[in-house]
Amino acid sequence: MIVIIGPTASGKTSLSINLAKKFNGEIVNADSQNVYREMDIGTAKPSIEEQQEVPHHMLDIVDPDQEFNVAIYKKMAKEAIGKIQEAGKIPFLVGGTGLYIDALIYNYHIPEVKPDNKLRAELSLKDNDELAAILDELDPEAAGTIDPNNRRRVIRAIEIIKGSGKPLSAMRSMEGKPENVLMLGTAFYEKEELYERINLRVDQMFEEGFLEEFKELADSYPWDIPGFNALGYRQLALYFKKEIDLSMTMETIKKETRNYAKRQMTWFKRNKDIVWVRDEFQAFDIVEKFIAQ
Fold this sequence. Notes:
By secondary structure, the chain is of the alpha/beta class. The protein folds into 2 domains: 2-107 and 179-292, P-loop containing nucleotide triphosphate hydrolases (Rossmann fold); 109-171, Orthogonal Bundle (Histone, subunit A). The protein has helices at residues 12-22, 48-53, 70-86, 98-105, 117-124, 128-138, 140-143, 151-164, 191-207, 210-220, 233-240, 246-269, 280-292; strands at 2-5, 25-29, 56-57, 90-95, 182-186, 275-277. The protein has a 6-stranded parallel sheet with strand order 3-2-4-1-5-6, sandwiched between helices. Strand 2 (25-29), helix 2 (48-53) and strand 3 form a beta-alpha-beta unit. Helix 3 packs across helix 4, helix 6 runs parallel beside helix 8 and helix 9 packs across helix 12. The protein is globular and about 55 Å long.
């Protein structure tokens, strides 16, 4: 299996499609927001045309009002990968959600922690900064990678840690990375260039109809659905509630997306199994040699 990871807007989609076409592969999504149906523009989901170039899996598998978590992802992704391998093809696991990828590659032992309504009620009274401080005290590593403004994810992380009595990092298997897995990281752009790509991507999303996409969702679902916690959608909810204007909405999305990319790199840089590539030529060469082995 080939894993392609990196921060948002770093070129993962294009690289993965080109590699999968070259090496008889199929793509398995590893982005926590791309699992939602009806949320295409704001999640930068591969386009219909891109999906037609190479078979994609783990896209559009739940509605925006359905709960989804790493345990569900791990189970479904393992099944998708197994079917690809049974067909004699190479699975390409592609995305930027580090927890999802690590849970799959390093076989995280995710505890069955049921919702704790009493704890959730207590945590719901706290603001984002207070929640982030609690998570940081319980598990600094997890706190450095989870969006502090995504209250649902922060509360669930606290709930799992308290319910299991272990930090998220302790769920990692001691077996290490399987030998038949190659992990590639996209390091195509320096930080400032990556940030500029993020800014341009947000502008492009609005040009492609992000406002209209959100309005259709808001007409169909209540404000408190899981999908509206996603980056971009969370800020647009404030805009439609008339709490911020459109200019502030766009700037906030850009800023929080840049912060998200920074958190992604913090997570990935800790992983010594990742081989960072500077361009597609280097990636092609490494993958070709890996498959030949």
